């Protein structure tokens, strides 16, 4: 379908965002809000002023001066009354003010509502007016632009620049006049550099008045001497003019002598009219990328001459279409390089990119293909994104979007597409079609006139929706017919007036009917109608209404009843397939509706285009080592063809991969990125808007390798013999055969000083040695040689040196020739040559080989004695060095003429060098093998023994297939020992050798014998295993057994068969052969053998069960039988075992099985019944016994028993010895992890270090360390512990006890340590506290105290004798004082105090009376202190009732502090 090209106004239209339609509205609202804020501020300030004035009025007036008391009293009374009146008046004023404020607020609110309503009305009127104004301005802009299009012209210089010579510090002004439309833009240059006013403020002043442009240079100096240029540019061309400015000194000097006049360089123009030589130094190659990545294609150039201001033009092309800068692509040319950068790759960017450097000297170009793969889909299996979106036929409310379909080689076919639109300036994408559209074009309707849109497309298949395509360029919804209605009216002279045709039509009211109504596009889902506007049209704007009718129905239905159409195109949807429709169009303006247009011819919805047919024959041909050229015949039906997709797959697979991701529009394509040496198949499918064709027929299989070319030239032409009338020549094979075998050589000759060459042989010579006959003796000749292959004759070699035709008569041999090299490695190589043609007077006996570094002048001989072989391995070379070689033949007469110097050889192994490997194939044949990935069709594997080509087909067989070659030994023996080598022609010197020695041959022959005489491989030899009930199973497993395999069991040389005693079976699918014996007794001792036969293969395996080995099996079988019987009743599934809980308790655990309610479970310790805290629950099958805080008292034998009528079982655990030690270690682990940091506690005896933990016992392996030295327990350091603590007592600490202390518990694996640094301040504080406690202890020990207790209360009757006796102690002896009611007791016959033996003290009261009642106390005190004990004595009279008293208690002493001197003494 032909689409209307995008008109010029679409390309230059400014695509604003949505906010431009709201600028006027926002301005009006902001103005209204500002006015309102000002009114509110004014009202607030006014009310505040009124309030202040009222407050001033209500204030009392103070009276100055002295007044009398009466007057003051009157004044006070009157002031109080006046104040009260003022208060009442103020209350009234406040109430009135509040009412006034409320009323004013209501009035302001009404006014505000009225203002808002008015502002809305005014804003709406201004918005409407602004919209109309904008529409008119746009319309006038289009009209103006149309008029400008008629007026445009390229710039033309009317007055050119004039050169000036000025004195230093003067001002100079350069002027020129230019005209053109649009107005040209002028730029000024100084010696090719753009002049920038901001760089030197005040230096330059640039002005422009009505086409006259000036450049003024202020205070000129010598640096301003230059060529000044002015360049005027508009959209239609560019012109320039230049002039020289010379600044001279203020003297009578010739300005041309004082200052060198600069030469004016030509200004850059559209085409550089200068000859440039362009050489590409670095080129971009074939590139593979993925969508979304960034990329830069770059070439490094050498342009000569290198002119600063004049450069050639660089242009980039994609598929021969000029690439322009956009937001996706950026270009750079300069500084010796040209680059094209992609910020975000899409498949649209795929294609053949060409860089063209254009100058007067011609065009230099370089091309390479860029492949862009699909990005990973958002949904697995979804198709790739469509590409190349284009917009056509843009109108006021309508645009057609087209695109190209993606390649779906690896995905399911595309079933349709979704088209999305987005208004410029927003990010709101709207889906245009509800159902996927089937073809690659879609009419998007419902656009808003004047707005700009961008579009994108997404493909859909059965797996999901693709990623969106690259968006289109913005498109404005504008009517292109508006500009067609402009016409020019010519006036006198060159003047003309541009106006609309509507202005000449008069005042037409109702428009006429549209004309030329037709279907411009027909598809299965819609019809696009087009028509011409009515004529006369009228000045008013037009809208259109479309009506449809089914042919023959006679009724018309309006299609766009809800929305009028403003464009003369419309897409009609929802048409029934198989029915024919007629259409007509009506035009309308504000005056009325026109008559209907003429009815269209019947139209039926259908696809006007169909999917293309498959392309024809596909041919693939060789191109390079990684590419193939694919050509195909075009399809028979190629209408509306978009292009082709090419697929490939590796031969033998069905994994097709796309070769291109964007359709190509030509029937030849170079597929890159292939694997060298791999074989491929290709197919092609055609693409149009409907979809893709069927796949073409597959191409023939092609191997990826370089294309055939003519061979390169031979080299190394050498004279080998001459008899005076003929010369024998030799030469070397060309380095490159051109991909095919060399068929022969052509030789030309010419005499010295002759220009013409003469052909020596008319047919090619196959050998590389040839005798040229018919020569003139004594003449000088030179020769050249050309090689030929299937591709043709190659270039001839360089002419040889001049050879003189004279007979050789010297006794020494002639030169060896055809020096070749193979097996070049890092420090060695192998050199080969051919024997001289001229042997001299005696046979050749050997050869010397000489070598030197390429730039060295001294030859070194490799071999001290001549070698009889025509090959030699040269070793001890330097890696990376380049050497040259020569060979000298030797006979009885001496050393002959040296050969020509060989070509330089770099001693370095090539990456990926492969060596010969030896092996044995599946038939047992011994072979040597070499793989070479660099082979071509012309390559040939040459196998040699001792570097002589193998031709003996009786002993060897050579098989070559592709890049593999094997040398087979038919009957290998010791005669085959030696060095074998292979070389591959038409490669970069691929060769290798292998030394077959006696040991290697023995290994290969042993492996060959094993293959030719096979044995059945066994996965496992004959073995046994024990089952329950004491059964024994003998078994083995073979790698593989066929259904015809046979076997037999032999015990002590006697075959046994399957029966009740020996149950034998074989599973041939798994290769397992087994025999099960239910009862294994002492009679079964001996040798067990299994023999297997399977075709030619056989094997056997034996197992010897004699002596101790048999006894062990027998015992185990008996044990298993007893275990089976045990498990018939209640039994232990798991015997007694133990673990340690986190609470440091030992838990004994066992599991029981086959129990029932009657089963009795008991715990016993040392055969005594042990009652646990909880009764075991046999239903849980687990029984536990908790031993809290294990210690030595818990050692002993623990037993668990089960018993019922079916039997009994027991489990015993001996907690002694190692078991007990292991439990302690386990406890040590838990306790060690819970250990607290070391704590310092001071005592009267010293300093004590404590470590608290969950549990501690001395059985644990714990140690204390001081400065990493173990501390033994002794008098000074005492080690001990309690149930939850371990401690270290430092008795009488000294300075030596300072240091780091460590407490360690070992749990059998790990040490748990806690450390404390007891030094410095920590030790000083602890030591001080210890001294204080020690002093307090000494004082407590030696102070005076009462040992024998006194009662606290004594009740006695009058007349009795009271005796209070106690024992005292103290060191020194204490002082004893008796007190009565805190007064000393006066000694008399009534109060008697006795002290006996210095410690027994008594107070006797004789004849107690009631006056003796009171509190008696004894004070016992020495210098360390003492104590006081009080006794209450109660006396009652005879005959009185004995008072009720509680039982006497031990009297509590009251301490008496020590004296100050004693305290000082202790310190």
Which outline best applies? extended
Q: In angstroms, what is the radius of gyration?
A: 60 Å
Q: Please count the beta strands (DSSP E, at least 2 residues each).
A: 99
By secondary-structure content and strand pairing, the structural class works out as mainly beta
Quick rundown:
It contains ten helices and 99 strands. The longest helix has 83 residues, at 69-151.
Present the secondary structure layout.
Blueprint (H helix, E strand, L loop, with lengths): L7 H5 L10 H36 L10 H83 L1 E7 L4 E4 L4 E10 L3 E6 L2 E2 L9 E6 L2 E6 L8 E9 L2 E12 L6 H4 L18 E6 L4 E4 L4 E10 L8 E6 L2 E2 L6 E6 L2 E6 L8 E9 L2 E12 L13 E6 L5 E7 L11 E8 L5 E3 L9 E5 L6 E9 L14 E2 L4 H4 L1 E5 L5 E5 L14 E8 L3 E7 L10 E8 L6 E2 L10 E5 L6 E10 L2 E2 L9 E2 L13 E5 L5 E5 L8 E10 L6 E2 L9 E4 L7 E10 L13 E2 L11 E8 L4 E6 L11 E8 L6 E2 L9 E4 L7 E10 L2 E2 L9 E2 L12 E6 L6 E6 L9 E10 L6 E2 L9 E4 L7 E10 L2 E2 L9 E2 L10 E4 L5 E6 L9 E5 L2 E2 L6 E6 L2 E6 L8 E7 L6 E6 L1 H15 L5 E9 L5 E7 L7 E6 L2 E3 L6 E5 L4 E6 L8 E9 L2 E9 ...
Parallel strand pairs: 2-9, 11-18, 91-98
Antiparallel strand pairs: 1-3, 3-7, 4-5, 4-8, 6-7, 8-9, 10-12, 12-16, 13-14, 13-17, 15-16, 17-18, 19-20, 20-23, 21-22, 21-24, 24-25, 26-27, 28-29, 29-32, 30-31, 30-33, 33-34, 33-35, 36-37, 37-40, 38-39, 38-41, 41-42, 43-44, 44-47, 45-46, 45-48, 48-49, 48-50, 51-52, 52-55, 53-54, 53-56, 56-57, ...
Give structural attributes:
1467 residues; mainly beta; six-stranded mixed β-sheet; five-stranded mixed β-sheet; 10 helices; 99 strands
How would you describe what is shown here?
- With 1467 residues, the protein is mostly beta strands.
- Helix content is 15%, strand content 41%.
- The protein has ten helices and 99 strands.
- The strands form 25 sheets. Strands 91, 93, 94, 97, 98 and 99 form a six-stranded mixed β-sheet that branches.
- A hairpin with a 6-residue loop joins strand 38 and strand 39 (657-658).
- Helix 2 packs antiparallel against helix 3 (69-151).
- The radius of gyration is 60 Å and the shape is extended.
- It starts with 7 loop residues before the first helix and ends with a helix.
